[in-house]
Amino acid sequence: MAGLFTLAQLVLVRPTLGLGWDEIVYVSQVTSHHPAAFFSAPRSRGVSLLVAPVASWSDSTALLRIYLAVLSGLALHLALRCWRGLFPTRVLVTGGAFFATLWITLFYGPQAMPNYWVAAGALITVGCFLRHRDGGGAPGALWGGFAGTALMAWMRPTDAVYVTVPLVVLALVTRRRRALPALVAGVAAGVVPWVIEAYAWHGGLSARLAEASRIQGGLGWHIAVGDQLRSLGGRALCRPCTGEMPALVVTLWWFALPLLAVLALVVAVRRGRTLPTVVPLVCAATVAFPYLFMIGYAAPRFLQPAYALLALPVADALWHLVRAPGGGRRRNVVTAAVALAVAGHLAVQLAVLIAAVDRNHDSRRDWARTAARLHDLGVRPPCLITGYQAIPIGYYTGCSSGATAGHNENTTVAEILRTADSIPVAHLTGPGATPPGYARPWPAGPIGELTARVAPRWSRG
Predict the structure, then answer these.
(1) Which residue among 97, 200, 215, 365 is buried most deeply as judged by most CB within 10 Å?
(2) Does the predicted TM-score (pTM) go above 0.90?
(3) Distances in whole angstroms, Cα of residue 461 to Cα of each of 323, 372, 398, 436, 454
(4) What is the CA radius of gyration of the chain?
């Protein structure tokens, strides 16, 4: 199943897909072929470490995609193995297949993004925690719990905390505390470097937390359930999240998840193995809560850890439906209904995935075309791009990127003008926007819907 997951990524998403905005930020930190993009306060270095074995010496996007696809398939295989003995093999395969065939999982598996790896880490952590309890404290499970927690914390420290809090509480309540050092050490592996970086570059931990909250629109009570539903139609980022809801057939599986989770809980209680079902359900709820109720925008990838943890109990519920005792005719009807629902679900996920891939291929080709036109206008490395979509277009052009305001503020007008004395500088203005004062006198030219203004000393007209 994990091998088919890797193959599906390579066939459906395709290694030729260019790097996206967030990927550029992470990859540029470790590559020598492009200047490093601004690394904002909420981000963590885990993805940069993950891609470093390839990105540090090669600028081939296709090679990076293949590497990540293979690695993501291996991670899924290892994560499911951590649950051997807790659920039957058929449940593990079905749950893994459910998670792997979500368009969100297929789309982000070969991308340099953190959320899939948090999901894999969550499966490893919770599975090893439960195996440690059942196995009388086997040290291998403790090491697996540490590895899974550290993987989550390297990628997104806050997600690691939300997943592990229920495990810590359970260990304290039941007085089985040998797992606590592994969990705490794993979280610390990702949190401590993030805290050190906060004091080194962000003015302290409280300043970094405040800046991270500001960039994310101010963390607090925000009901983002509707935003998440809108994003299920294939939107990578829903900010601001406006427009119509996707068709019901696209979101129906989302509404079915909590119902199947309740059924899974009922089945687990009847079979006397409540804990392997309750724990992943609770961890899924805690890691999903901030993205559903504490943030003012949505991206479908945010809930990947929750989907991964829900997958196994949901698969157990589905197997219960098709194997429940009863007359042959009733069982045949239920089995046919489940098979039909699964087939419809797969068809919808495939359709959304293909549309999302095509849309992202087009947008990233636009960035490449803009970069080629900037080269024609005299903007060649070393150089600086400011203004509209400066980070992705700067990367594709081979330039640094700069912003004097907003979430990616990293320079000033005076620094931009000084830079223009020594290297080419261009400002990009989006449709209907007004250029800043320093760029208005510069020679301007259209690039599609954008307007490029190049510092006079470097402009080729």
Answers:
(1) 97
(2) yes
(3) 72, 15, 20, 20, 9
(4) 24
